[in-house]
Amino acid sequence: MEMDVFGKALLDYLNGKYTEDIITFSSLDEEDIIPIPYLFRSYEEMPALEQNALNLCRGAVLDIGCGAGSHSLYLQEKGFQVTALDHSSGAIETCIRRGIESTINSSILDFTRPKFDTLLLLMNGIGIVGKLSDLKSYLIHFKSLLRSNGQILLDSSDIIYMFDPDEAFTAYYGEVEFTMHYKGLASSSFPWLYLDYNILQNVAFECGLRCELVSEGEHYDYLARLTRI
Description:
Layout: H1 5-14, E1 22-26, E2 31-34, H2 48-56, E3 61-64, H3 70-77, E4 82-86, H4 89-97, E5 103-105, E6 116-121, H5 135-144, E7 146-157, E8 175-182, E9 185-186, E10 190-193, H6 197-206, E11 209-216, E12 221-228
Parallel strand pairs: 3-4, 3-6, 4-5, 6-7
Antiparallel strand pairs: 1-2, 1-8, 7-12, 8-9, 8-10, 11-12
Helix pairs in contact: 1-4
Organism: Maribacter arenosus
InterPro entries: Methyltransf_25, SAM-dependent_MTases_sf
GO molecular function: methyltransferase activity
């Protein structure tokens, strides 16, 4: 059975057993840290791009890849009908214990109903696509979960700045492989996609979705809004 490293870290924090953070290793030959307390941040502690996305939410909201549920919790407290979805059982248990009323432990591709007014994918939530070749099928699936006037709010980053300008690519540079390590445990390697805005806009159009650049962050990141054409 796949070890739920991410979920264990969240539950440890919730249970007062926080002693270290998640370490990630990637195909970019980089080691990074996911500070677990940051996953439990309040609205005031969120970057402006995330605050902007939350302020744009409307109607029934599906928080895809909800993690510790900080976005869902904020929206619920504001009176939204919000559902927190994550494939990590530990993440969903964390959300339930934090008081989120509607949760779903599932892969987004296995989730087919009901429909929502807003699909929310934050903290590079579109990264779950993994490979650029799968982007179209994911966007079509997202579209199937939207009500007629629904919207998709997502953020990502263009990581071209991390490469030499003369570097030749054999695959899309935004496709990255990760593993997570926590307290001696390691996840299986998984793909994660960083998506430049132009490609998102082009593929969205192929799927019958209008793509709008809402705002840009300070670290080559952006917030986009997709709606039906």
